[in-house]
Amino acid sequence: MENKDKFLEIEEKKDEAGLGNPEELKRTVCVIGHKNPDTDSICAAISYAYLKNSKERGFHYVPVRAGQISAETQYVLEHFQVEPPVFLDNIGTRVKDMAIRQVPGVRSNISLKNAWNLMMTQNVFTLPITNEENQLKGLITVNDIAKSYMEEYDSAIVSVAKTPYRNILETLDAEMVVGDEEGYFDQGKVVIAAANPDVMENYIEEHDMVILGNRYESQLCAIEMQAGCIVVCLGAPVSRTIQRLARDRNCSIIVTPLDTYAVARLINQSMPVDFFMRKESLQTFRLGDYTEIIRDVMSKKRYRDFPILDQAGKYVGMISRRNLLGVRKRGLILVDHNEVSQAVDNVLDAEIMEIIDHHRLGSLETMSPVYFRNQPVGCTCTIIYQVYQEQGVEIPPKIAGLMCSAIISDTLLFRSPTCTPMDINAAQNLAQIAQIECDSYARSMFAAGSDLGSRTPEEIFYQDFKKFEFGDWNIGIGQITSMSMEELETIKQRLMPYMEKVFAEHDTDMMFFMLTDIIEESTELLCYGKGADELVEEAFHQKVTNNCAPLPGVVSRKKQLVPSFMAAINRMSEV
Q1: Rounded to an integer, what distance in angstroms lies between the CA atom of residue 248 and that of residue 259?
Q2: Alpha-carbon distances of 492 from 332, 447, 452, 542, rounded to whole Å
Q3: Which of 269, 289, 392, 520 is deepest in the core (most CB within 10 A)?
Q4: CA distance 1 to 416
Q5: What is the chain's mean pLDDT, rounded?
Q6: Each residue of 439-449: pLDDT tens digit?
Q7: What per-residue confidence (pLDDT) applies to 25?
Q8: What is residue 453's predicted lDDT score, i.e. its pLDDT?
Q9: Which residues, other chains included, contact 564 with Cβ-Cβ below 8 Å and sequence gap of 6+?
Q10: Do the Cβ atoms of 237 and 257 come closer than 8 Å?
């Protein structure tokens, strides 16, 4: 069984390739069969997706599968040169189905003031900090900026933060008269020269940034005390002598139109966000994360916003708890089943749009009315063939071959009691389109499917295994068909120990497995669980010996085994 959900990967590639292309921006709807899919389940998904894409333009229909492809189905796909559907083990909503806010990433050297202005303009509370490769480096929030302004009293904090002069110029709307705009203020403290020069000498130290006015004596004193930078307020002109002395002493000179109070108030806002942003233990989510998982994480964190990364680790956007309310469910069409126990995981979290089936009505419920087509025929592809005819869609030879194979498989080449004249008519017409002869093709297909010698007991068991609910009872039923009695006997000897082991691991009351001989049109039934022997004896009047019961004439799980079990359970309940 594949562990990686390739469907998400394909979806993301489609999204990337389809930017600006309306055809590629259609909503994707998955067409899927049941878990442990048989040939009908796989072929029905492919055939119905092709039909929907041929007739409708509003959605993009993609065939997917919820389980491993059997040897028989693999033979069919290879024979008609059709790619298998991608694997999808969970249809639950993901982060990519949410309304992700496109908050652009900013560089780590921008000023706190610039960051604040961006937040106000974009009406956001969190800014992502990214590098040139769009990788997330940190986050800065409104609270972080407020704390930097309200709780920071260290006069050396501007240099500790290694503030770029370019940030200071931008924040103070200033001009650098002497010095390098690309440099950094990374030593000293910030002081205001509000006293006479003889007093200034006592508190100005080497490398300090001195905020002062137009007084020549104060400017000269600051330069002689080895200040790293002087900020001249109110746009006062700076004499050539002061400029020359500043160059000689490596002292930068900045001229701003703001007054001393404004400069003192704003200077901390020039610090880079890198100094205050959160860099460690960032809580991020990926596009492929399931919302049921992130919902629990978000409820335990006190963050307002959470950054989203794509599969390559690149920043995509932001979400908050509020975005969980409007998550868009993934579109889904079910074929060949209508029971929750047989459906892909989290099927109830999807928007089920259609159901095409030929089994009994199961336990599935939908939030709103859906198109539900259920007919008592031997194969789902027979119904899909009828839909092709009704809608006047031409069937390509490859699709015809898939549907014909499904009908042959499900009806055991028209020998199953589930087979109807509609199945036979559909198979014969499809065989003509696909240019195959049913009898000879069926022998090759069944031979490929029954070649189970190299497969493990687990692979054999789950090739076609379904769970059913009968009132309060949960019953699992698997089936293998073969044209060789000797092969079925070998499988039986390998399967019985495995079934005894796996029964303890499953949440089922009883477990059965049908070893069906196509030629003899009979089944040997393996039985496990409390009450399993009594149920078989009540349903078929056959004695169970060593967990085995012969069922002559029984070949269909749907038409014979399940209905007989249901009737027997009802009789036993009445006693």
Answers
A1: 27
A2: 37, 18, 12, 19
A3: 269
A4: 29
A5: 89
A6: 999 989 988 87
A7: 55
A8: 66
A9: 539, 540
A10: no
**Partner residues linked to 210 by β-bridges:** 191, 230
At 365-420, the pLDDT tens digits run 888 889 999 999 999 999 999 999 999 999 999 999 999 999 999 998 998 888 99
Q: How far apart are CA 310 and CA 572, in angstroms?
A: 56
* pLDDT number for residue 575: 56
For residue 481, give the amino acid letter: T
Q: Are β-strands 59-65 and 27-32 bridged in parallel, bridged antiparallel, or unpaired?
A: parallel
Write out the two tokens for 214: 């137009």
Neighbours of 112 (CB within 10 A): 25
- DSSP character string of 313-326: SBEEEEE-GGGGGG
- The pLDDT, as a whole number, for residue 9 is 54
Q: Are strands 252-255 and 86-87 parallel, antiparallel or unpaired?
A: unpaired
Q: What is the C-alpha R_g of the chain?
A: 37
| In contact, 341 and 468? CB cutoff 8 Å | yes
Task: Please identify every stretch of the chain with a pLDDT value under 50, giving residue numbers as ranges.
Answer: 1-5, 13-24
The phi, psi pair for 317, rounded to 5°, reads 175, -165
pTM, 2 dp: 0.63
Sign of CA dihedral 350, 351, 355, 361: positive
212 Cβ contact partners less than 8 Å away, ≥ 6 residues apart:
192, 193, 218, 219, 222, 230, 231, 232, 233, 260
Distance between CA 80 and CA 404 in Å, rounded? 11
